[in-house]
């Protein structure tokens, strides 16, 4: 009898705690755009999807999309890329009792190439 009660409580706990965690988007200032001085060429948008596994309540994690991976993907797609700007990051977190979580990450940004500086003629 105690075993059935324990299993029922464990099942209910797993069902209700194995949900998807959704965070509210962070407010950003849309008035700022890069670059404001026009000293670079916009090459286009770049997207990168990756997955990160977090275990032991955050003590161990493996994977995850970072800026360097986004820059490398931009260089593979566009060739001569100097930087990736206006980066946005979306996360979808799937968790099992907080012990094991899978975070699906999407990074997107704008690939740019800096133009040579032009000296003013006197």
Give structural notes:
- The chain is built from two helices and five strands; from the N terminus they run αβββαββ.
- The protein has helices at 2-17, 67-78; strands spanning 20-21, 40-55, 60-63, 83-96, 100-114.
- A five-stranded antiparallel sheet has the order 1-4-5-2-3.
- It is rod-shaped.
- The termini are far apart.
- The mean pLDDT is 77.
Short précis:
The protein is an alpha+beta fold and 122 residues long. The protein has helices at 2-17, 67-78, and strands spanning 20-21, 40-55, 60-63, 83-96, 100-114. The protein has a domain at 39-115.
Number of helices: 2
Give the overall shape: rod-shaped
Task: Report the biggest beta sheet as strand number plus sense, adding barrel if it closes.
Answer: 5 strands, antiparallel
**Beta-strand content estimate:** 35-45%
Unreliably modeled segments: none
Rg from alpha-carbon coordinates: 22 Å
**Average pLDDT, all residues:** 77
Judged by helices, strands and strand pairing, the structural class is alpha+beta
Order of helical and strand elements: HEEEHEE
Question: Would you report the number of β strands?
Answer: 5
Oligomer: single chain
Helix content: 10-25%
Strand order of the largest sheet: 1-4-5-2-3
N- to C-terminal separation?
A: 94 Å
